[in-house]
Specification:
Layout: H1 2-27, H2 44-55, H3 62-74, E1 82-84, H4 86-97, E2 99-102, E3 105-110, E4 113-119, H5 124-127, E5 135-139, E6 142-143, H6 150-157, E7 164-171, E8 174-181, E9 183-186, E10 190-195, E11 200-205, H7 212-225, E12 230-234, H8 243-251, E13 259-265, E14 268-274, E15 286-290, H9 297-307, E16 312-315, E17 323-329, E18 335-344, H10 359-363, H11 365-371, H12 374-377, E19 388-390, E20 396-398, E21 407-408, H13 418-425, H14 428-439, H15 441-444, H16 450-456, H17 460-472, H18 483-511, H19 516-525
Parallel strand pairs: 11-12, 12-15, 15-16, 16-21
Antiparallel strand pairs: 1-18, 2-9, 3-4, 4-5, 5-6, 5-7, 7-8, 10-11, 13-14, 13-18, 17-18, 19-20
Helix pairs in contact: 7-8, 8-9, 14-17, 14-18, 16-18, 17-18
Length: about 525
Amino acid sequence: MKKLQVWLPLLFALVLIAGMWIGFKLRNNIPNSRGLFETAQRSSVQEVIDLVNNRYVDKVNSDSLTEDAIEAMLAHLDPHSIFIPAKYLDEVNEDLQGNFEGIGVEFFIINDTVNITNVLADGPSDKAGLKVGDQFLKVGDSTVAGKIDADRIKKLLRGPGGSQVPVTVLRNKQTVNTTITRGTIPLYSVDAAYMIDATTGYIHLNKFSGTTYEEFMQATENLQKKGMKQLIFDVRDNGGGILGEAVDIVDEFLNDNKLIVYTQGERQQRQEFRCKRPGLLEEGKVVLLVDENSASASEVVAGALQDWDRATLIGRRTFGKGLVQEQYDLSNGAALRLTVARYYSPLGRNIQKPYNKGRDAYHDEVAERFHNGEMLKGDTSTNHTGPSFKTPKGRTVYGGGGITPDIFIPFDTTGYSRPVYELFSKQTFGRFIYSYYIQHRDYFSQFKNAGDFAQRFDQQELAWNSLVAYAAKDSVQLAGVNSRDKQEVERRISTWLARQIWRMPGYFEVNNRNDTMVKRALEELKK
């Protein structure tokens, strides 16, 4: 009897282990089975996916099935909660990181040939001796002369930093072989930073990435060394990005412990972002340029500077994206960007526009502004439907979606003739700019910088005639266009040539001389 008492616990343990093992083996054959320690009831979505995977008559792609289910679920939420498949995650994150791994060139495919149109200064390709005008013949073991598309050449050129890729290029009808060591290629947030006049600086930001505040500070310090006393800050076409970068930039404009923005959601308590340090831009006039494509973090900047009477806003009502997303990594390498809160300006303005009519209506809202006349007449106190607020200086500002500027500039709705539209839509114009530059490189070498080019470029008529002939080969007939279209195309020839030579800084420095908003900003700063 004593022997039985000694062995009985061990016998029970063996029976229990055997039962658990048998149950585990059988669970895969039971469609509605759950794990031993899984007590929560599974959702109907997961049950359906499991049944299809285990019982459906044909073979199915489980990943596609799951992704489609997730997309359908998110369609019932806001327009900015999105699922990012694993294969696209790196590419999506690059823009926010502010860099990627590659060789540092821009290219254009002309007549099935990959032409190098720009080489990043001090980048991997520059160090390997590649030059503007070189044409790729081989990348690694792959021949790229002949039929090639942009996606394929990108895959061949990109790779981990430190890895090497041998290339063969054609230069002045001579074959050149070299090896490029790939590196980190910056994706700059500051498109341009220069002095418009003796005391006025200009900075354009295209996004808010992980390097934006650092870039902005470097640009500001350089301009102040050149005598900047007042600033035109341009966030047109800036779709936003990282909130922290926008907060840090606003901190440079505001003093004391001022509130910059706060966020709040159904499941997230109010979180305030305030000034923490003395800023470089707390003194001097500021004009902020905005438009219908200024969104998210750009609207945080606009709302804070307007609410505190720190800047005059010029342009058109901003996009109206005031939702905060957090990114969650999923087990299969994909990610979910889920909206968790809303942005509110210091005065409590809700930046987010309504999205209760569905995603299509939400994304078409900017186009609707053209139809209802807002792009021509403005969104002013006489037609604004959102709640009103008072700034410290007594100015009235409005909520209800987007930030309404203090000074409205209408959108130029004058359309182009069909040949001019085809010129830009078929990329004929971009290819021409590169070709014209290569053919007249000696002429362009005389210009010291973009400002010098803007003053002394005198080939407008020659370039126009060359473009007419070039476009005709691509079935685009420009010879009979009206004088307005010709004038606009000639203006773009100058700005795009400046971009070809000096990249985006050159483009903005030349383009701003005829930019309506910039001209209005200069008038405001002179008051």
